[in-house]
Design goal:
Layout: E1 6-11, E2 14-19, H1 30-45, E3 51-56, E4 60-62, H2 67-71, H3 75-93, E5 99-103, E6 106-108, H4 110-117, E7 120-124, E8 128-130, H5 144-152, H6 154-163, E9 167-168, H7 169-174, E10 180-182, H8 187-199, H9 203-217, H10 222-236, H11 239-262
Parallel strand pairs: 2-3, 3-5, 4-6, 5-7, 6-8, 7-10
Antiparallel strand pairs: 1-2, 8-9
Amino acid sequence: MIYENIILSIEAGVATLTFNRPSKLNAMNAHMMNEIIAALEQTNIDEKVRVVVITGAGKAFMAGADIVEYAQQTKSNFNRFQNRGRCLYAAIEGHRCPVVAALNGVAFGGGFEISLACDMILAVAGSQAGLPEILLNLIPGGGGTQRLPKKLGINRAMELLLTGKGTSVEQLQAWGIINHIYPEDSFAEDVRQFAKALAERAPEPVRLLKQLARSAWGGVDSANLAIENQLLETYYLSDAGQQQIQAFCQRSLERSQRKAKTGS
């Protein structure tokens, strides 16, 4: 399959899925989401694949949803986008192989939610992650309100959700969210070596261990995910929600125009 918004490469049992919209900080639109799901499904049935690494091209892992496309969605498009999002996270958590997020840069919104669904997270030193939806007067819609409290604890998760602030990967590692942090100049090679070591393990015990560990963790409740989606939909489609999104888009456009004029 030919992809337009991602790059999928497979070498020595390691499948690397790279978000490839660097000019947009890898912000996810509907087409990109469908490609990510297709790549995850492809690697899940490819017996040569032992490990999946998800990373980004350029300076960002993923800055979240493509807010311009997001703001223009009709109700049916919104519901389709949300439903496909749930398929994406399920494809990560249900993948037979370990799925490792390699945060090469900032991971905000849906980017952080994708990493929270992964089995392990590696990060480049000095980067940040977070769920800034509250700053748009919205709520996360990709399971962030469910996975973050389960992985981080309710008090710390509540602070991050309600402030929307980015948190350093160093702090997230201290809190147990990040597995390893690597220097920028050796990040790609360090990630490659980490994935290579996992790929050398026997595939069937690895599959069973992932299944058992996730069973012990308990995962996220599908009913709670449905509530998250319903609350987001209700607010997103309301007059107040639409006004906030359009205001954010206008501010973003004005910032871009100012940068274009100043050349900075």
